[in-house]
What we know:
In the N-terminal section; belongs to the HFCD (homo-oligomeric flavin containing Cys decarboxylase) superfamily. In the C-terminal section; belongs to the PPC synthetase family. The protein is an alpha/beta fold and 417 residues long.
Amino acid sequence: MFGPPADVPPADSRPRVVLGVGGGIAAYKACEVLRRLTESGHQVQVLPTAAALNFVGRATFEALSGRPVHTQVFEDVYDVPHVRIGQEADLVVVVPATADLIAKAANGLADDMLTGTLLTARCPVLMIPAMHTEMWEHAATQANVALLRSRGVVVAEPASGRLTGKDTGKGRLADPAEIVDLARLLLARSDSLPRSLAGKRVVVSAGGTREPLDPVRYLGNRSSGKQGYALARVAAQRGAQVTLVSAHTVALPEPAGVDIVHVGTALELRDAVHKAAADADIVVMAAAVADFRPVTTATHKIKKSDRDPDPVALTRNPDVLAELVQARAAGRLPASQVIVGFAAETGDESGDVLTHARAKLARKGCDLLVVNAVGEGQAFEVEDNSGWLLAKDGQERPIALGSKAQMAAEIWDFVHS
């Protein structure tokens, strides 16, 4: 039941999360999800299936959550826990959601504590699938997933990669950090992951480009790539077919259900974006693309000497965002394509952040500009973000401070409206 363990003072304001654990090999990753949720201030009640306890012992879940763990409805019957837990929950997350568990949920079966709770819960439900590719792609599983989604359950897209044994393919559990990110997004806004981008082809650029000076040194910037990755992650979970053109990032987990193209320099990013944008419905340029690159790159490490170093001659990189707008106007990209730019701005003596952003929107000609005020502890290398949405038709909307996933959801809401 919810409520703090005996040695913890009441904390009714903490979000109440039910963590359901299915009986698959990926059940061990639920421990990391549990740890991240509890450490970020959530009350977590773990409800494993009996099969899940073959992979992770009851003691592990109890130690990490600080709460007793039950699998059957006949435990503590006097309190009717399968009803009470569902009624009190703010969110139910199922990690992993096996093919069997998805089938039971879709058909309303309730033969244990977890499936009974799924029937009584009236809060958002997030199911994170994990199974072999053949099981995920089977018509029965796909029909069950479609049925659950039609009822408002968020069934996430699985990742691709190494599965049990030597197999590789789609069906891998999403990274625990990504799962917690989606859970927090649903807690902040339960309507943040509708399948509103189903059938859309989306291109997102992310991270910071690096322009080499020699084999060791480069010109770069402070972009972490977190906002672009959040945009790609949320778009994929909203049903889009997403290509993420990723420059340098801070070792971020690859978003589930996303095709990733890794690049290094601005010219490489330019080529990859133009190629991916050829048949895209939406292009979002969230990457921090270097404005300049060295005219020449040394083939050996530039040695330190007693004399002053030679000045580094720079040349301007192409403006990829402006090129996309020009290509659309010339008919080389779909006329209906929506192009979104990003602007990291600071105020100065000639104007504030929005003054410079409005001028940039007019200069670039994109449909929407996402504006971040940058500075110490703002935009770059932080977990949360805020800003403004500026549209070419004159609409302006502030985005309150929140997680980068929340900002991504607001951007996709605006694009889709």
